[in-house]
Automatic annotation (TrEMBL):
Belongs to the glutamate--cysteine ligase type 2 family. YbdK subfamily. Its EC number is 6.3.2.2. This is Putative glutamate--cysteine ligase 2. The keyword Flavoprotein does not apply. Keywords: ATP-binding, Ligase, Nucleotide-binding. Pfam families: GCS2.
Length: 364
């Protein structure tokens, strides 16, 4: 069975006001002192962010337990230094980003100017094991049309700088400001994939291979395909759902490739429209059907995804947990829907953040 791991970026906030706080250095220092050499937490581009990565897991129950453990550990370390963690893909409240100091981040800030300054966004990246770069690139080609559905399920960034953006996942639109971000054309082979990344590096526009911010890419550190379209999910069970579906997509793609079934040859411009629609609508309106690229109700598109990966879910034993998680998500709404309902009920974005701090440590 393929292993799967999750990287989550969390927002550090003031527990009283809900405003983001640049406390990552203090949180990381406390974590390192508390558990020398064993901390799973890392700094990110901004001091208001904290990142962690799970270990590779083959069972979704174990992955969910580790996500919960990491979120609660993050909350404990943050609390010890006077802040809190929230699984929010963007801050609902106004923010003045504070760049972490290192050579790479300084280069990015100088090179990209306001684009870098506005990148205080929190994502969820899913790593799924592959046998080789050849299989990995074949998988990347096959999964392209389905990634927008994962983005819609995870959508958790409706507010920015104190305003409703009109989007469910505004993080996607902010993320696309990087020159290398978004969906990709068909690569066809590992050799063409690596050649394309080398050509991008040769332009000097991006600094290194890690800045090839494709929606799905080969990991530079692990033998995995890394799927990077999801917002950080408000609730842990949604993160597990995204991970389970990502693994099922990878397994289904590998089987189709081995069977000689070609990938859907949608143009990048259509894939961008599908991703834009997912960011705009979340689960509230139509999405673009991954096969036909025509609008259909979001719930129907999600069910099409489940049908597409059904055999892989059965073989991994994930069918029941995925169907239950999808039913729960379609019933209560994704993180974007939850945030808007909280704002409607309380009238306060500060209260939205306060409640999201609590929900960050809830499984469902």
């Amino acid at each position: 069975m393929r292993t799967v791991g999750v990287e989550e970026e969390l927002l550090l906030v003031d527990p009283g006001t809900g405003e983001p706080r640049a406390m990552s250095a203090a949180v990381l220092a406390h974590a390192a002192q508390d558990d020398p050499g064993q901390s799973v937490f890392e700094k990110e581009l901004f001091g208001q962010m904290l990142e962690y990565a799970t270990h590779p897991q083959s069972r979704m129950g174990a992955l969910g337990a580790e996500i919960m453990r990491c979120r609660r550990e993050a909350a404990r370390h943050a609390g010890e230094v006077g802040c809190a963690v929230a699984a929010l893909a963007m801050s609902p409240l106004p923010i003045n980003p504070s760049l972490c100091v290192n050579e790479r981040y300084q280069w990015m800030a100088e090179r990209y100017g306001i684009t870098a300054q506005e990148q205080l966004v929190c994502g969820c990246h899913v790593h799924v094991s592959v046998e080789s770069a050849t299989e990995g690139v074949a998988v990347i080609d096959q999964v392209r049309p389905w990634l927008a559905v994962l983005a819609a399920l995870s959508a958790n960034s409706p507010y920015c700088q104190g305003r409703d953006t009109g989007y469910a996942a505004y993080r996607t639109l902010v993320w696309w400001r990087w020159p290398s971000a978004g969906p990709t054309e068909l690569f066809g082979s590992a050799e063409r994939y690596h050649r394309r990344v080398a050509e991008m590096l040769a332009t000097g526009v991006i600094l290194d291979e890690a800045m090839a911010y494709f929606d799905a890419r080969l990991s530079a550190r692990y033998p995995t395909v890394e799927i990077r379209v999801a917002d950080v999910c408000l609730r842990a069970d949604t993160a597990v759902l995204v991970a389970a579906l990502a693994r099922a997509l990878v397994e289904t793609a590998a089987r189709d490739w081995r069977a000689g079934r070609p990938p859907l040859d949608h143009d990048v411009c259509l894939l961008r429209l599908a991703a834009w629609q997912a960011a705009r609508a979340g689960l509230e309106e139509d999405l673009l059907d991954p096969v036909t690229m025509r609008p259909r109700p979001a719930a129907d598109v999600v069910r099409s995804l489940l049908e597409h990966v059904g055999d892989a879910l059965t073989d991994s034993g994930d069918t029941d947990c995925v169907e239950a998680a999808v039913a729960g998500l379609l019933g209560r709404g994704n993180g974007a829907r939850e945030q808007r309902l909280l704002k409607e009920r309380t009238g306060s974005l500060r209260e939205v953040v306060t409640e999201c701090v609590r929900r960050t440590q809830l499984c469902r």
